[in-house]
């Protein structure tokens, strides 16, 4: 399974939270990362996004079909995210490949859980991706961090 976590790009600081839109800088961040991901994502890959407007705008930069999932909304928890991605196998229709576009602090908590088993949380930069490869080696899951990439380096 390839699991790519993508934090939404920079958004305006307005309310209500779910209606916040990307700033001009955020649109540029999303375009840069979307172009990089377009060249590197496995095919097929399920693209799941929070229903928040800023995450949907970030995901649109990829130019692939997007499925909004309420279990990825800002107030949701790591367990909700794991359920949405069908952890640990991932969806069979996409060979387990999932790109999840979401929010802090949950993305950082999910990344930390994948690598350490703890949900203390790490900081995921706006517009950045964390790419994990998950394999069942027969004695349990092996999680490898393939790359961490910010939009400024994409």
Say what oligomer this is. Answer: single chain
Number of helices: 4
How does the helix and strand content classify structurally?
alpha/beta
The string of secondary-structure elements, in order, is EHEHEHEHEE
Q: Indicate the radius of gyration in whole angstroms.
A: 14 Å
Can you identify the CATH class? Alpha Beta
Name the beta content range.
15-25%
CATH superfamily heading: Phosphoglycerate mutase-like
CATH architecture: 3-Layer(aba) Sandwich
Question: How would you write the strand order of the largest sheet?
Answer: 3-2-4-1-5-6
Q: State the share of residues found in helices, binned by percent.
A: 25-40%
Structure report:
By secondary structure, the protein is of the alpha/beta class. It has one domain: Phosphoglycerate mutase-like (Rossmann fold, 3-Layer(aba) Sandwich), CATH 3.40.50. It is built from four helices and six strands, in the order βαβαβαβαββ. It has helices at about 25-40, 55-60, 80-85, 105-115, and strands at about 1-5, 45-50, 65-70, 100, 130-135, 140-150. β5 and β6 (about 140-150) form a beta hairpin. The longest helix is centred in the first third of the chain and has 17 residues, at about 25-40. The two termini are about 20 Å apart.
